[in-house]
Please model this.
Amino acid sequence: MPSLRAVLFDLDGVLTPTAELHMHAWRDLFSPWCVAHGAAPYADADYFDHIDGKPRYAGVADFLASRGTHLPWGDPADPPGEDTVCALGNKKDQVVNRIFAEEGIEPYPGSVRFLDAVTAAGAAVAVVSSSKNAPGVLAAAGLAHRFEVLVDGNVAARDGIAGKPAPDTYVRAAEILGVPVSRSVVVEDAVSGVQAGRAGDFGLVIGVDRGTGEGSLLDAGADLVVGDLGELDASVLDGGHVSGRGHQTGRGHQTGRGHQGEGA
Ligand SMILES: [Mg+2]
Model:
């Protein structure tokens, strides 16, 4: 049995290329909002700095705060609109769901190969996503049957679990799988998600750089960063990091944990 016995995957941007889609939907929401409110123009850096990986409404609130705006929180049942944080989040969700329905979702082939490898090696696997769309995304990508445990935005809201960058959703998934966090791997593409893995003291935190930047992921506490999970195989479960090429840098296990700045 490998020393690391569970692999906890983020969904959007790790298993499926839906981070890009979410990025577009946020741009569609906030670009006109910034113009209408005379705020500094929306840029994709805003997505990585304020939104990526967080629960939807927290992303709305944090982006608005970056422009010095604070709206009432509202209620998740608010119709799509711009009066409350929840209404703005629901407006963005409307765009996302339309794109899912129109275009379908193909998982990253390298991620599926890595999933195959760690599953064959005996690791338990779970999906840990801030998204409330996670069940639909997993089903559309043909991956639903590969994961017995899903801790998503619906579970977090139902059980009152703090979202990323808090470690709690990842910790819950490890608990359900019955594997200690020290023996569990977190796989994340977002700074907030990597911070969650680091804050939870997981055995290994793998950053997947889909545009966030290797340096940002390492600074957030990733043990290693790859451009695609296809660069890895099941040897990561025994501390072997990268098969073949790859851009592992910086803090490997041998460098120890170090002391991160204030992560979350
Ligand atoms: Mg992600």
Observations:
- Residues 10, 12-14, 19, 53, 189-190, 193 surround magnesium ion (CB under 6 Å).
- The domain at 19-103 is CATH 1.10.150 (DNA polymerase; domain 1).
- Residues 16 and 107 are 4 Å apart (CA to CA).
- The chain has two domains: 6-17+106-255, 19-103.
